[in-house]
């Protein structure tokens, strides 16, 4: 029985060099890559929006646009900050467990099993991933709605568009929201991976299975 | 081997009256109940928002507020309509498969297994549930953001609050959004159920499992 290094999650089944080993390896690699991508993009999104300002002079009066003028952008910056911190912790967890397994390998398989088949830990990771996926999506949804209003206005409600006045500000916010959308999409792809990791612990192989996947 | 009637999903494992039978029965019942709740609440939410209008007379000019004035509310009505239709189809699927299994029961267990362990169908249900969960959440997030703007305005952007003018309209929209939030929360609870149903098909029982759950 062998274990592949970085990216082994608690709850993952051990690599048995059987028919499932390829899919298991791919799942582990995908998990670590996605968590790194999420961490980077979330930091980028929060930085783009959080540092965005533009000053306009209107009849000798200076007006400054900043992200705190729109509560939805504040929510998005907070959500992306949480997503980045969470993903960093998860990547460290993957590396740490991988190191512990390497240390235990060939010495004590019971310790490895305790790490790899730990249902409470797998539940915690699954719950965390779900919460972060929903949090980032809700934040992106709210921010995108605000951005649409800023770009096009809502004439029926007399909410005027502001992007013709603060073009540079709006463009940078747009880039931040685009990064936020990618964070959210990556979280959506990651979420089934941790579900797979958790719920297969409750399963059993069925030889009568008619599905091909 | 016996099968409990309504609520049996393709991908669920059969009830074997073993240690897992209780959790399996609960999962099936929870699935059907949640799908019915989602269907009812989504219809309620779409109806509350879609039928909401208020006419105000301002200096002999009549102004009418309707949900199409806010694009986020149109998105929410469409998302709730899709969620209601999808949930109805899923409830019918549960009932239909339950009837087919009852018809096959004690006659041909291979047919039952083909229904219960159908991975492609379990993948389709899981994907559908995920998409609906994310769709309803994004719609609720955008609509909630618009509602906050309508209620409190955004003075920095000179977007004035409109709920002091259209109080009855805003209250009904608020009720519709509250129902939409419940739809979204129910979808979030349902999503791990279909993940459980799917991914346990890929699992195997591990006797060395140290987790207690």
UniProtKB/TrEMBL annotation, chains A, B:
Domain of life: Eukaryota
Domain Casparian strip membrane protein residues, every copy: 25-184
InterPro entries per record: CASP/CASPL, CASP_dom
Record keywords: Cell membrane, Membrane, Transmembrane, Transmembrane helix
Transmembrane residue ranges: 32-51, 72-101, 131-152, 173-199
Membrane topology field: Multi-pass membrane protein
Coarse class of the protein's main subcellular location: membrane
Matching Pfam families: CASP_dom (PF04535)
Cellular component GO terms, alphabetical: plasma membrane
Presence of the UniProt keyword Transmembrane in the record: yes
Subcellular location: Cell membrane
Family: Belongs to the Casparian strip membrane proteins (CASP) family.
Summary of subunit composition and partner proteins: Homodimer and heterodimers.
Name this protein carries in UniProt: CASP-like protein
Lineage: Eukaryota, Viridiplantae, Streptophyta, Embryophyta, Tracheophyta
